[in-house]
Structures are given as structure tokens and as C-alpha cells.
Amino acid sequence: MRRILLVTPLYSPDVGGPATHALFVEQNLVRLDCKLQIIKFGHFLKYPYIIRHVVFFFKVLKQAKNVDTVYALDPLGVGLPAGLAARILGKRFVLRVAGDRAWETGVQEFGVKDTLDDFARNQYHSLPIFIIKSGQKLTASLAHTIIVPSEYLKMIVTSWGVESKKINVVHSAYEPQDLPSKETLRQELGVRGFSIVSAGRLVPWKGFKALIELWPEVMAFRGDATLTIVGDGPDREMLEQLVRLLRLDDVVTFTGNVSHADVLQRVRAADLFVLDTGYEGLSHQLLEVMDMGTAIITTRIGGNPELIEDGKDGILVEYNNRTQLLTAMREIIENPIRARLLTQNAHEKLKQFNPAVIAKQLNALL
User: Fold this and answer.
1) 259 pLDDT band (50/70/90 cuts)?
2) Which fold has domain 2-174+354-365?
3) What pLDDT sits at residue 19?
4) Which helix (H) or strand (E) element contains residue 36?
5) Which residue, of 56, 94, 175, 364, has the fewest CB within 10 Å?
């Protein structure tokens, strides 16, 4: 029986890709003759910044003595301490990269305006970004194997200077959910009019600002259209001010952080899901929407085209292209038969993300 130490920055009920993947690993690898231990970084947040990472490193160092593989779900905060601990102990180190932490931090804290593609090509950055980028590269260099959820992210990690043959694409798995019908949930949640939902962390690259600013034009051809934004984040106050400025309080709603079950119910009850994102590795959220029978409009960004074929499973637009967004929304609103066909095709594609198949692929790499 192989022994694996899973090191994760997030864990259920936290919201985010690492939490979802950690739960999947915990539920599925034990069925494949693996013994799993988990270290959750959230338990170390009580310590001051930097010190928490040092304490975390020694915790990993202690627990990794009795395992065969250390599997980290982050290329920096938990990945670097885990990688160093694994190297010291001579253990196999596998790293999962589901995003570029340097770019995310740069956009949120250091005024980076580049798209991720441009950021990956640009070798000249401020000192803080250079340090974060160097940390990611160091973690990647420590890994025996790197796992990414999309071909797009394989390209991004290759731009870090990592050999392509070291990087393996293992798509996110999805387990179909059993929820009440759309009509039942609309009644339970009090959904009215043509309901459009968008969800995610309220950060600049998620495109919520453009969507809100477009809403008066949406209402010009569908007066009962409502927008529900599910999630929370640093941009929430700015976005709420924008809603008040545009006098959209009655039709644009913020839910804040809600349970995963609540997110699924709101998506299921909606007529349309819009994800105007400038950055996605492989969106697990889109997999969920594909299962919910709700039409999808999203961007030709990152791994999105690997999930949604434009005109077949949903509609793809350019990031923050308001003309394309408005045209796509109008098409879904005015053509319910086409919307139904898109949702049927999207649901059929979910078979490609069967958990049993994904678990075997993952197990072979660990």
C-alpha cells in the first residue's frame, strides 16, 4: 500500500479549487489501495505571517518521514515548504498547479495589468513579482512530476522553464449532482424573471464590473432580467457602489459567501450562467454549470475552450468584450430552443470527466 501525504492550502468547507481537489483525492485514492494523510494549511493561520510557513515546513518534514509521496496543491505557499521537506527526506514530490500565483498576486496587490499570457512571456517585473515568480519556479524544479488540469496551464508552466515532459494533464473530475428540478428550486428560492447568475471570487479578472455596467442594456431588451453575483472578495465594496450608482439595487444581488450546495441550487434555478473571466486554468465551476442544465456564456480564456466548444456546448466571447457579451446574452434570451440544445450538449460532455477514470490517471502519477 502506497502512502501519500496530501498538502493543501484550502480544505472543505473552504471555497476554491484546492479544496475541491483535496476532497476528491480523499474520497477516491483510498479506493485504489492508497493510505492518505492530509496537512491543511488553514490550521497554521493562527501564527504570524512567515512564521506560519516555517512551522508548516517542520510539520510536513515530520509527517513526510513515513510516506512515499508528498503531493502539494499549490506552487508557492504550501508547495515550496512541502517540496523542500520532500527533497531533504528523499521523498517523491508531486506538485499540482491550477494557476499562476505570481500573476494573481501581481494583479491584486502590485498593479499588474498584463493578461496571464503576456505576463508569462514578460521576463521583467518588479522585485516582489520577481521573488514570487522565482518561488514558483523553485517549487516546480523540486517536483518529480507536475500535474495541471488543462493543456493551457501546461503551456503556462512550460513558460516557467519547466520541461514539457515533466508536466502531465489530468483534468478535474466531476461527480454529477442530484438536485431538485429547475422549477422547484425557482419557487423555493423566489427566483423571478429571467435569472442570470455569475459566480466566483470578487477579483478584477472575473469581469463582474463589466457585467454590471452592461445591465441597463440587458434590461432594455429583457425588462425582467435579474443578475445574482455569488461569492465574495476584495472588489465587493466597489461593485456594490457601482450597483447603487447605476440604481440597479432591485435587480442586481450579491449573496456573499454561501455553501457549495447553495451555489449549485442558485445555478440550477437560473436561466443563464455568465463567466466573464480573464483567467481560468480549468474551471470546475463550469463543469458544475454543465451539470445543472443552465446555459453558459464564458470567455475564450485559458482552459475554457477545452470545456466549452463555441456554439455547441455554450457561447464563447472575448474577455470584457461588452458588445459580444450583450449579443450572446440576447441570443440566449431570445432563442430558448437553442439554449436548451447547448445545455444538452454540455451535459453530455461531462462523461469525459468521469471520477473513476480521473482517479486512476492521478494514482498512476503519484
Assistant:
1) confident
2) Rossmann fold (3.40.50)
3) 83
4) strand 34-40
5) 364
CB atoms within 10 A of CB 40: 20
Helix (H) or strand (E) holding 105: helix 101-109
Out of 12-16, 334-338, 354-358, the most confident range is: 334-338
CA separation for the pair 253, 52 (Å, rounded):
37
Confirm if 177 and 288 have CB atoms less than 8 A apart: yes
Measured CA to CA in angstroms, residue 280 lies from 26, 266, 275, 324 at distances of: 24, 21, 10, 19
For the chain, the structural domain boundaries read 2-174+354-365, 182-352
Q: Which residues pair with 227 in a beta bridge?
A: 196, 252
Q: What is the pLDDT of residues 155-170, one digit of tens each?
A: 999 999 999 999 999 9
Q: What is the mean pLDDT of residues 234-251?
A: 95
Q: Which of 245, 207, 206, 211 is nearest to 227 (CA)?
A: 211
Q: Would you list the DSSP string of 241-276?
A: HHHHHTT-TTTEEEEES--HHHHHHHHHH-SEEEE-
pLDDT score for 351:
86
**Are 192 and 226 contacting, i.e. CB atoms less than 8 angstroms apart?**
yes
For residue 179, CA distances in Å to 31, 229, 235, 240, 293 come to 26, 21, 31, 30, 11
HSE at residue 253, side-chain half, CA atoms within 13 A, is 15
Mean of pLDDT values over 281-288: 86
pTM of the prediction?
0.79
pLDDT in tens, 55-99: 999 999 999 999 999 999 999 889 999 999 999 999 999 999 988
Domains 2-174+354-365 and 182-352 share a fold: yes
SS3 for 228?
A: strand
Q: 180: which residues sit within 8 A by CB, 6+ positions away?
A: 188, 268
Superfamily, domain 182-352: Glycogen Phosphorylase B; (3.40.50.2000)
